[in-house]
Amino acid sequence: RCVAHDHPDSNYKLVADHLLAPLDGKIPSEQVIPINPQLLDDSDAAAADYQKELESVFGSDEKFPQFDCILLGIGPDGHTCSLFPGFAQLEEKSRWCVGIDNSPKPPPSRITLTMPVLNAARNVAFVVTGAGKRTTIKEIIDQSDVRLPASHVALPRGTVHWFLDDAASQDLTLNKPSEFKL
Predict the structure, then answer these.
(1) N or C: the chain end with fewer CB closer than 10 Å?
(2) Distance (Å, rounded) from C-alpha 181 to C-alpha 10?
(3) Using CA atoms, how far apart are residues 59 and 71, in angstroms rounded to an integer?
(4) pTM (two decimals)
C-alpha cells in the first residue's frame, strides 16, 4: 500500500509491529524491503523501484524470483496481494511488480507482486479468518472459481498451504481441512 511506513494502512508497519518487533532482530532489517517512501505518489514508479530492489537480491537475470515462502490473505472478493478480479494487473506476465491506482479497497494506490512471482514461490501460505470469507473460500478451494484471483495461485514446483479458522472453512465440502492446533 502506497502510504507512509508509519500509517495504520501500511503493510510495512503491520510486518514491523507484529512480526519483526516480536522476533527482536532475528530477521535482519536488510531482508525487509519496504516501498520507497519517496515514490508513494507514483505507484508505477514505486513498483519499478521495488522490482529493482528485488533484482538486487535475486539477480536481474532471473525470469521471476523464487521466494521460499509468501504469506498471503484473501479479500471477500477473492483478491490476493492487490490482484483484484477483473483488473489488468492480474494478467501481467512479464513484470515482477506492478502499480495500481484504483484499488476497490482503500487505500487506492498500491503496488503488488504479480501472479508469475507468486507462482514461482516454493511455498505460499494463505491465512484466512472469519465467516465473511467462507463463501469465497468455498469458491476458491472446492470450486476452483477462476474468476477469483486467489484461485490462480497454483505453484508448479511448490506447495500452497491454507490456514483457515473454523468460521472461514465451515462451508467446505469437497476439501475438508485437517485440524490444526497450537
Answers:
(1) C
(2) 30
(3) 22
(4) 0.91
Q: What is the spatial distance between Cα 68 and Cα 58, in angstroms, rounded to a whole number?
A: 12
Return the bridge partners of 126, or none: 72, 162
- Count CB-CB contacts under 10 A for residue 71: 14
Q: CA torsion, points 139, 101, 14, 93, in degrees to nearest 10?
A: 60
Rounded distance between C-alpha atoms, residue 165 and residue 162, angstroms: 10
Taking a C-beta distance cutoff of 8 angstroms, is the pair 1, 11 a contact?
yes
Q: What does DSSP assign to residue 7?
A: S
User: Each residue of 6-48: pLDDT tens digit?
Assistant: 999 999 999 899 989 999 989 887 888 999 999 999 999 999 9
Which residues are CB-neighbours of 123 under 8 A, at least 6 positions away? 68, 69, 70, 155, 158, 159, 160, 161
* Cβ proximity of 160 and 124 under 8 Å: yes
CA distance 60 to 95: 12
48 in helix, strand or coil? Answer: helix
